[in-house]
Backbone:
């Protein structure tokens, strides 16, 4: 079996993680621009905004790492999880755009980072727990 389909699937996952980072950025910018009810401080604190921005950057870095390591990761046996990974990250991207509470956005960004890190290890057994955690969180949202 060629590594090309595996590599394409991992690149698609990196695309999805990048799209999630884009969605986090759009949502963060909306929260920053949202005026407070009393006309004072914006709808998000500076600390939370900074944390979300750092998560966005880290998620983009993880996606870039997946692009670079796609061939090696594909050979590590992750193909059994690829469809589920792509479906969950697509769901996450959709949820990011509709999340009302910043805490939920922060939690989801952290779970995406954990999943990306697990995938980057190239060890399928390390992917299952973050995959299930993300699935449960998305179901709860």
Residues:
């Amino acid at each position: 079996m060629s590594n090309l389909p595996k590599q394409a699937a991992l690149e698609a996952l990196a695309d999805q993680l990048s799209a999630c980072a884009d969605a986090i950025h759009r949502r963060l910018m909306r929260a920053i621009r949202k005026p407070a009810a009393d006309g004072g401080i914006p709808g998000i604190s500076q600390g939370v905004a900074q944390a979300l921005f750092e998560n966005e950057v880290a998620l983009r870095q993880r996606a870039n790492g997946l692009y670079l390591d796609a061939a090696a990761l594909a050979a590590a046996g992750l193909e059994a999880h690829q469809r589920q990974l792509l479906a969950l990250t697509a769901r996450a991207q959709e949820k990011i755009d509709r999340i009302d509470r910043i805490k939920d956005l922060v939690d989801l960004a952290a779970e995406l980072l954990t999943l990306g890190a697990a995938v980057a290890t190239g060890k399928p057994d390390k992917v299952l727990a973050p995959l299930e955690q993300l699935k449960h969180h998305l179901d709860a949202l």
Remarks:
- The chain has one domain: 4-140.
- The CA atoms of residues 19 and 93 lie 7 Å apart.
- Residues 4-33 form the longest helix (30 residues).
